[in-house]
Here is the input.
Amino acid sequence: MTNPLVEAVPLVEAVDVSRRFSRKLDYAEKIANLFGAGLEEKTVHAVDEVNLAVYPGEVVGLVGESGCGKSTLGRVMAGIMPASGGEVRWKGRPLTSLQGDDKRAMRLSAQMIFQDPMSTLNPRKRVLDIIGEAPKVHGIVKGREMRDYVAALAERVGLDASYLDRYPHQFSGGQRQRIGIARALAVKPKLLVCDESVAALDVSIQAQILNLFMDLRQEFGLTYLFISHDLGVVKHICDRVVVMYLGRVVESATPDELFDNPKHPYTQALIRELPSVTDRRRVFTPIKGEIPSPLHPPAGCHFHPRCPKAFDRCRVERPVLKENAAKVAGRHISACHLNDLAAHQATNATAEPAI
Amino acid sequence: MTPVLEVKNLSTHFMTRRGILKAVDDVSFTVGEREIVGLVGESGSGKSITGFSILGLVDPPGRVVSGQILFNGEDLLKMSPGAMRTIRGKRIAMIFQDPMMTLNPVLSVATQMIETVQAHDRVSRTEARARARDALGLVGIPSPEERLDSYPHQFSGGMRQRVAIAIALLHRPDLIIADEPTTALDVTIQSQILFEIKRLAAEFGMALIWISHDLGVVAALADRIMVMYAGRIVEAGQVDGVLTAPRHPYTSGLLSAVPAAVPRGEPLRPIPGFAPSPLSRPSGCAFRDRCARATDICATEPIRSIAADREFRCFHPHLWSAA
Ligand SMILES: Nc1ncnc2c1ncn2[C@@H]1O[C@H](COP(=O)(O)OP(=O)(O)O)[C@@H](O)[C@H]1O
Ligand SMILES: Nc1ncnc2c1ncn2[C@@H]1O[C@H](COP(=O)(O)OP(=O)(O)O)[C@@H](O)[C@H]1O
Ligand code: SF4
Ligand code: SF4
Ligand SMILES: [Mg+2]
Ligand SMILES: [Mg+2]
Here is the structure.
């Protein structure tokens, strides 16, 4: 595993990045307002002042439950969606300052791979064109060399090159994901943002694709932001794991640290509740409550209504990301007020039992 | 222990334009009283169609072509449509991955639940409503009395699934068939629902067939596990035994393919290749193209080997010595 030097410049970095979506009033609501309903536009804080640096060669996992902002943060860091606040930096330079060739190069250097490749593969195009179009347009390969170029890539990702004239619907889910990967690789990217790229695949096909990602990392010197709701997958392939909850990063550490020594009560719950083949006929001890709506996130620590260890301060003050007072191995940070208590106090701070 | 359900040599085929698709192919199993049985296998292996066949929900071009489905000793396949409707919903209930398969979006939860109660029991509206409210409370829905008058879209995904479970529980069925009901849910919500289901199944003495592609979920929940591949049950037995000492190469292949099976950072060990198209499966053992143990004999049908609490269909099963 790579251990990036502290002074290395991140390949991509989010600095206090926020992304808000405002939900416009629909027609019925506007009418209601004519009659004095007083409805207002609602704002979703999908990503709320997040700091995250991804260093060259690193595989960073981004985990958390649905709606916590993983996809939004991934898109913003890949430069395909603007931030509403803060700044994304590519090799140290703000994305908003990039112009012309630099901007184009950055766009090609960061590629996304989605969960459902069908949604991004044009059904009326042959696989050859799906993979070969962008490199041709961007002058990475000449027109008459395209077929050879695509065939080599297809072979590399485990697609039969004799199928290049077929259409996406003629392939299985796993093969379509390989098409998506070949298309991303065709423009010689530095960063792959994988958004739930293996979530829809059966376990064995998932293992094949994960192995492919890891091989490509070595071979093409890739950096990954690997978004997944599956902690088991992330634990296996990532150098660092970042846990999000309701738009905020709540913990970040190496997988070994995170799994052996989770600090944030939310991370602890996620790890405890992860179903595992080696953990048979167990007793479930779920945390209570639903994930709150990002339209009305709880004050203070977003997790406090569900947290078994919440205390008064949690309801009013947002905890900042920092190392634990007990000084665990470097670069393990979490956002929880328990960090400020001495170790013995923290373990005793159990307020209410789960369910 | 008398079995609640005994499925014997069930085959369900789809007569498609491209040929006969054997979605379920000579499947036999039993579910004991109060037993939780996990049914696992990759997508397309026939798990859902097995569940649909039991409930008589297979639509053309699909058809149960042979077999028996004995429910408390009575063959469901020989029952009149009217008698089947009484069984379905009252004695056997189904929960789907998408709760909207059960719920009607334009009716309030109360209306739907009262209808379900009154479909099988002659009780007053007031009593039906009280039973609906109690069922919502049982599955952990806060303020059930107020929530009764909500519509399905006013619930979160996890709460909607709880409502579907509450509906399944209304008549205290003997058997619930649950088809991937937590697959679309987040892990903390999944955990809450598994907790409730486990508690309720024990409390009401219900048997459960839990269909899932997630071995971890089945490991945590089930007493027994059945592994399906290409329309067949290739291995079945007690969860502990099957997961620690699998006999069938497909079962061991699945277990080896999960990330937790190898040390962190090392290459994973997938089963080579992918499942054959259901219209062009190899003759004999359908797994043989992908199986490291295959020999010539595997081109013929492997029969069910049944030993003490374990059965499998394989000519060259793994051998485990008592450690
Ligand atoms: N284009 C959009 N318009 C409005 N709201 C959005 C949009 N994209 C995402 N959201 C909202 O932002 C929040 C975070 O979403 P997302 O980034 O997709 O989360 P995740 O990938 O972790 O499931 C959710 O509440 C979601 O509904
Ligand atoms: N309505 C249908 N028409 C034709 N084939 C079907 C139909 N429903 C299911 N099948 C086929 O039956 C097989 C088993 O499907 P299913 O039981 O849904 O698998 P699983 O639930 O294990 O993913 C699959 O090959 C599927 O394509
Ligand atoms: S800050 Fe408080 S509520 Fe938030 S996770 Fe820590 S203890 Fe729980
Ligand atoms: S019957 Fe043969 S091909 Fe099938 S699983 Fe057993 S060894 Fe493998
Ligand atoms: Mg997402
Ligand atoms: Mg299914």
Notes: Chain A has two domains: 1-24+43-245, 261-355. Residues B 14, 16, 21, 23, 41, 43-49, 62, 278 surround adenosine-5'-diphosphate (ligand 2) (CB under 6 Å).
